[in-house]
Write a structure and sequence with these properties.
Order of helices and strands: HEHEEHEHEEEEEHHEEH
Structural class: alpha/beta
CATH topology: Rossmann fold
Distance between the termini: 73 Å
Number of domains: 1
Number of helices: 7
Strand order of the largest sheet: 2-1-3-4-11-10-9
Number of strands: 11
Radius of gyration: 21 Å
Shape: globular
CATH architecture: 3-Layer(aba) Sandwich
CATH class: Alpha Beta
Length: 291
Amino acid sequence: MNIVSRVAAPMLWLLLVSTSPAADKKIALIAGRPSHPPGMHEFRAGCLLLQSCLTGSPGVSVTVYSNGWPQANAALEGMDAIVIYADGGGGHPAIQKDHKMFLDGLARKGVGLGFMHYGVEIPSTNGGPQFLEWVGGYYEHLYSVNPMWSPNYERFPAHEVTRGVKPFSNRDEWYFNLRWGNKDKLTPILTSTPSDAVRQGPYVYPKGPYPHIVEAKGREETMMWVYERPSGGRGFGFTGGHTHAHWGDENQRKVVLNAILWIAGAPVPANGVESTLAPGQLAANLDPGKR
């Protein structure tokens, strides 16, 4: 090899490396099993819709796992973010088998974690402490509440997750009075003040009212939040999403899509993730054979 070739070869290699696309941020959306009547808890349809809306985001690949946790934990290795949209409580996918230990290991490596709707509820003695570390908060049975109501989301903090999000409202099962951990690392994203009537109930289950909820009248509540772990890594919780039709609201979609990118460490566009639904897209992939 002559001197020109010896000089040109490494320069060409550097050029190829510098112009090659950045490695994808890998995101997994875990959709829980069917559990509610049609149009409610449509976890699979919701995840597939969110996946479709993120298709145009550069440097991002999104995989949906339907009907709960993938067959092997190895499927989630190498992910930059994992979002669970599923039934929670004692049946939460995050606390079955060795999943809690596995997720804790990923969180310690800086993997982003997100939980949506019933997926933010976890037993206080089994998963609760981990949720405080992973995402900064969770729904606690008989402490938090789940009424059907219409919060008005009118003001948003300056944050990547709120980019391009405009005021919106929809009637849904928006949880509040959550159990919080390190609030210094937590940013409320969707907030509103429930009326006295909402606090009086009925809640979806148990129907209440709970004295501690009624006594907090006039207090602003948080229905979505983001969290930066002191040890590294990000998380979010979103309490809406009971009613599938509300994914048709572009602002609800945008704030969640922004959050998914954010916890994965992917860039959030200056005006947030723009998405348009095709005719019939909301009705696609609904769970068959629901009771």
